[in-house]
């Protein structure tokens, strides 16, 4: 008679249990695409953040150098351009993702 359990039988049982658990495990939920509303809000947020950042920097520089409208106008325009650029990049990314999901 043996002193302990058979290691080969225990390993075989562990493999069977792993296979059974894996078979009954639910698949992870993944969202492959953004809804149009989410994409729209993302782009609006990027534009507004660009504008506010440019406005804030311009206002701060104008207050520091006492040149009120100069930097405010320049940096607000730069913030707008940066926001539009970020929006275009997001739109391109979303378009690529949608094209990949439709091709698959």
From TrEMBL:
Question: Which residues are listed as membrane-spanning?
Answer: 43-61, 67-88
| GO BP annotation list | proton transmembrane transport
* Presence of the UniProt keyword Ion transport in the record: yes
Q: Which UniProt keywords apply?
A: Hydrogen ion transport, Ion transport, Membrane, Transmembrane, Transmembrane helix, Transport
The Gene Ontology CC terms held by the record are: proton-transporting ATP synthase complex
Query: Origin, by domain of life?
Result: Bacteria
> What family is reported?
Belongs to the bacterial AtpI family.
Its function?
A possible function for this protein is to guide the assembly of the membrane sector of the ATPase enzyme complex.
Protein name (record): ATP synthase protein I
Question: Per the UniProt entry, what species is this protein from, by scientific name?
Answer: Neptunicoccus cionae
Query: Lineage from the top down?
Result: Bacteria, Pseudomonadati, Pseudomonadota, Alphaproteobacteria, Rhodobacterales
Q: Which gene encodes it?
A: atpI
């Amino acid at each position: 008679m043996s002193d302990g359990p058979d290691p080969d039988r225990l390993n075989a049982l562990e493999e069977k249990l792993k296979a059974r658990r894996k078979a009954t495990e639910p698949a992870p939920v993944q969202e492959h695409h953004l809804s149009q509303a989410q994409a729209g809000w993302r782009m609006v947020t990027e534009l507004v953040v660009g504008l506010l950042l440019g406005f804030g920097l311009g206002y701060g520089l104008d207050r520091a150098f006492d040149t009120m409208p100069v930097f405010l106008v320049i940096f607000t325009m730069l913030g707008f351009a940066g926001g539009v650029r970020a929006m275009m990049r997001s739109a391109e990314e979303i378009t690529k993702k949608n094209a990949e999901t439709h091709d698959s």
